[in-house]
Amino acid sequence: MTVHGRAPGRLLTVMSVAQIGDFEIAAHIWSADSEIVARRTERLIRVCDPECYRIFLTVSGEVHGEHAGNQVDLRARDIVLCDVSRPWRVTHSTGPGVMRAVVLTFPRALVPIASAKVRPLIGTLIPRSMPGHSLIAQFLVGLTDTAELTSDPDLADVLYECTLGLLRQRLGQPVGLTPRTRRLLHMAHIRNIIRHHLGNPKLDPNRIAHAAHISPRYLHQLFQDAELSPMQLLKQLRLQECHRSLQDPALAMIPIQDVIPAYGYLRPDQFARDFKQLFGVSPTQVRRLAGQRPTGREG
Question: Largest CB tally within 10 Å, which of 7, 54, 152, 183?
């Protein structure tokens, strides 16, 4: 794309990207004190055309877009469907506020719906009243709502069901967001919530349900056929993150009892028991083995 406009006196722009299977998810942060216009032209498309659809979700701020003959003004939690093989023009909002957006890009070949049917939707807003809109927006925001963008490979199936269900729902097809897709979205969102709050020792099913905007009863219904209960999942994710931290050379000099509070463990003895039960080795052994591994190339 090309960027045009008067050089701003203040400019903030950040992009974090993760690849999850066939999907690329990006978190954008933008702020400037003068109007900036980004364009993707026919010439640039000829230079690079990945033949992908793109879901653009505004988290905060405002954006004016022109795409496929349509004009849209996006506000917080608006979703628009794009086609990177077609020209577009985006004008970013100015002022003290920060524009945040989530962009999900995926191959057109991944969608088993004729492009002729999808074409009228390009450059148009997904109606907020459409069933599933809020759930999908909540899920996508949750994926990028940390300093480190998640790249969990298990999310690829959820993203596929999510995007396909969104398109089918928008087209009014009988099979839109199925109960299975809704459950997958809820479960993935709950996992993200737990990941974001691992350091809270008071995290429990009621707090998880409140953060997910569902009732505790529905939370337990979601986990009824799952391998783990919400609290068992919480413990597993905490221990997995602790395991990763104990292998991190940057944390090698920090005592183990000073590492674990960041993941909600306040009692080292309880942590040691849970850790060995899950991994079959002690935390000390994991750290010692990590210290024996080569840390760089030999010259």
Answer: 54
Coil, helix or strand for 30?
Answer: strand
Residues 167 and 219 in one domain: no
Taking all residues of the chain, what is their mean pLDDT, rounded to a whole number?
89
Dist. CA 202–CA 61, nearest whole Å: 33
Is residue 202's pLDDT more than 90? yes
Ramachandran angles phi, psi of 80, nearest 5°: -130, 145
Say how many domains are in the chain: 2
Residue 58: phi and psi, rounded to 5, are: -85, 125
* 190 and 74, same domain (yes or no): yes
* CA–CA distance, 259 with 246 (Å, rounded to integer): 8
The CB-side HSE value for 72 (13 A sphere, CA atoms) comes to 27
- Torsion over CA: 88, 59, 55, 49 (sign): positive
Q: Whole-angstrom Cα distance, residue 162 to residue 93?
A: 29
Q: CB of 207 within 8 A of CB of 160?
A: no
Say if residue 151's pLDDT is above 70: no
On whether residue 299 sits in a domain, the answer given is no
Going through the chain in order, the beta strands assigned E by DSSP cover 2-4, 11-20, 23-32, 37-40, 52-60, 63-67, 70-74, 79-83, 88-92, 99-107
- 5, 82, 119 from 65: Cα distances, Å: 16, 10, 17
Summarised one tens digit per residue, pLDDT across range 134-148 is: 888 988 888 776 545
| Domain CATH number, residue 188 | 2.60.120.10
